[in-house]
Design a protein that fits this description.
mainly alpha, 64% helix, globular
Length: 303
């Protein structure tokens, strides 16, 4: 960890991370946005490819470019897995997102029971047209989807979440640690949240039709990133590696949409039930408050 707050490197990193990502976001906007993006072979569209590669990998590239421009060298990359000594951090990173997602969805449905569909009618309708799966219990399918998300989807998503975490947690968090680990986690989360603004304005996570669009969506995403940022920072420091944050981020991306299977009607997406919504993030709020106020944080960063 650097002995003093390095404003210059922080500024250069943020300039690269925002500039590269927002340039990619501009290309997405000019080619139809998220809704009208051109289709590509393989069932994907241009927006998905650009966001998964160019946008999500911008922080990692910013990390590398900042080190090159400032001639910082290649120490303290936080790439060592340290699994043998920090395996508990890996387990916490893997299972906590599932718990937080389910808690947030439960709180949302408890507050707005009119949007909860215990019979999973939409999923049943889809299964009815699927041949051999038509008689499968839909709740069993939800459980299988969660298992798949925790295993296969996590591995695949890690290829992309590494692009974010190698920048936000492996570099920017390190540079903010002289401010204190808790302040560093909060500031890291705010910056990370604002960084999402262009894709939120194009409908990512919350769509295009909600009161206060797009500013309320940007605020909701920033709020969620602050909560997640506290957890990601803590497991990065606890694990002494960026990999627990990569895994946690990948799990979140894999299971965040599970709650939508139990939705009926059209709830306000800024409120829930997704874990990046204001009420859907209730599980993450509890975790962030607990970590921030009741858990000891390393004061000397990571070796």
């Amino acid at each position: 960890m650097n002995p003093s707050f390095d404003r210059r490197r922080v500024f250069i990193f943020i300039l690269f991370a925002f500039g590269l990502a927002w340039a990619v976001g501009g290309v997405v906007a000019l080619t139809g946005g998220l809704v009208h993006s051109p289709s590509l072979p393989g069932g994907l569209n241009l927006a998905v490819v650009l966001i998964a590669t160019g946008y999500m990998w911008a922080p990692a590239l910013a990390h590398v470019l900042t080190r090159l421009v400032t001639r910082e060298g290649w120490h303290d990359l936080w790439l060592r897995p340290r699994f043998r000594t920090a395996w508990r951090a890996w387990l916490i990173a893997w299972f906590t997102p599932l718990l937080a997602t389910l808690v947030g969805a439960a709180v949302f449905f408890a507050l707005f029971p009119q949007y909860f569909d215990p019979d999973l009618l939409q999923l049943r309708a889809a299964l009815a047209n699927s041949g051999p799966l038509a008689t499968l219990n839909p709740w069993l399918l939800v459980g299988l989807m969660i298992v798949q998300a925790m295993l296969v989807a996590t591995v695949i998503n890690s290829l992309f979440t590494f692009g974010e975490e190698f920048g936000w947690r492996a570099y920017l968090l390190q540079k903010l640690l002289p401010l204190g680990p808790r302040r560093a986690a909060l500031l890291n989360g705010i910056i990370w949240g604002v960084w999402h603004a262009p894709v939120i304005a194009m409908g990512h996570n919350y769509g295009l039709d909600y009161p206060g669009f797009p500013w309320l969506g940007i605020l909701a995403m920033t709020w969620a990133c602050v909560l997640l940022g506290v957890f990601f920072a803590w497991i990065t420091l606890r694990g002494r590696s960026v990999w627990p944050a990569v895994i946690a981020h990948a799990v979140i991306n894999g299971i965040s949409g599970v709650a939508l299977l139990a939705v009926r009607g059209q709830p306000n997406p800024v409120l829930g039930p997704l874990p990046v919504a204001l009420i859907g993030s209730a599980g993450w709020l509890v975790i962030a408050v607990y970590l921030f106020f009741f858990v000891r944080w390393p004061d000397d960063g990571v070796a």
